[in-house]
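input
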Amino acid sequence: MPQVSVPFLLAIVAWLVASAAAPRRAWPWLRDLLAVGLLWWWEPRTLAMLSLLALAGWSASRLRRRLPAVSGLFLGVVAAAFIAVRIAQRGEGADVVLVPVGFGFAVLRIVHWWVEQGRGSLPDHGLRDLWSWLIYLPTVFVGPVQRFEHWLRWERRRRFDAHDAAAGLHRVLLGYVRIVVFAFWLVGSLLPRHLLGWPPGPTGAVIATATLYLVFAGASDIAIGMGRIAGQRVPENFSSPFLRSSLPEFWRSWHMTVTEWCRVYVYLPLLARTRSALLSAGVAMATFAAWHELSVAYLAWGSLQALGLLAWHRLAPTRAPRGPVGRVGGWLLTTSFIVASFWMLRAWPRGGQWYAR
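output
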C-alpha cells in the first residue's frame, strides 16, 4: 500500500516542513506541488485520472446551466466508466496494469461534488479548487471521503498551529503502528504461527477481518494526522466498529465516510421515491459491495448485510441492547455475524465471480 512506501514517508516529512514554514499564500501551491510530485513519481495514472475528472466535471457543470440533460448524462458516463474499469479488472495482474490507485474513492468524490453542485449547496469555487481537492495528498489513495465544502472551508481558513501539528504527527505514528506492528507483524505473521492446527476457515476469516480493519483504520489515521498537521480536519473513518453491540452501530462505525455516502446518495433518495426500506437498504448495500468488487460474491455479501440490518430493525425490541448482559450478547451476535459474512466472502467459489477485483 502507498502509505508504507519510502516516497510516501518522505512526502510526510516534506508535508510537515511545508506546513510549518510556508507563508499562508504559498501553502496552496506547495500543497499541490507535493501531491503532484508524489503522484507523478509513484502513480502517474492516478494524477492523470484525477486531472481528467476535474476538467471533465468542471466543463460539464458549465454546460449544465444551458443543457439540463447534461446532469444525468455526466453521472451515467461516470457510472459506465466505473463499471468498465471493474470489468477490465478481470485476469491476473489486471489491477496493476489498468486501475489507478484510488480510483474508487475518486468516483465517490466526483459524484458527491456533481450532485451538490447541481443543488447549489457548494460555496463559490473554481476549477483549481476542485482539482486540489481531488489530488489532496492525505486522502488521495484510500480516503476518507471528505465532503468538498468542508475541505474548502478548512483550507480557506487554514493556519499552522504547533499543537495541531503535534497531535497530527501523533496520529500519523499511531497509523503506522496499526499497520506495521499490529496488521503486518502481529496479526499477519505472528498470530497465524500460533494458530496452526485450528480450523483454517474460521481462523482465516478472523485474521483477514482483523488485518483489513487494522490496515484501513491505520491508513485513515495517517490521512487524518496529515490533515491535522496542515490545519485541515479530515473526517473520521472508523470508530471502534468491533466494540459495537448491534449491526446498525457497526455500520455507522465502519468505513464511515463511504457508508455515509451510500446513505446520502443511494439509500435516502431511493427511500423517498419507493417508500421501501427493504429495497433501499438492499440497493445501498449492493452499491457498497459493488464499489469494492463487481462479483457475485460481493453482491451476495452486500445482500446479507442488508438483510441483517432489516432483521435487526424489525426484530429487536429496541435499537440497542439494554444493560451489560444485553450489550455483551449484542456484541457477540454482531461480531459473529460480521466475521461469518467475511468467511462466506473468502470461501465463495471464485469460479462464480463475474468480474474479480
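quick obs: Residues 1-238 form one domain.
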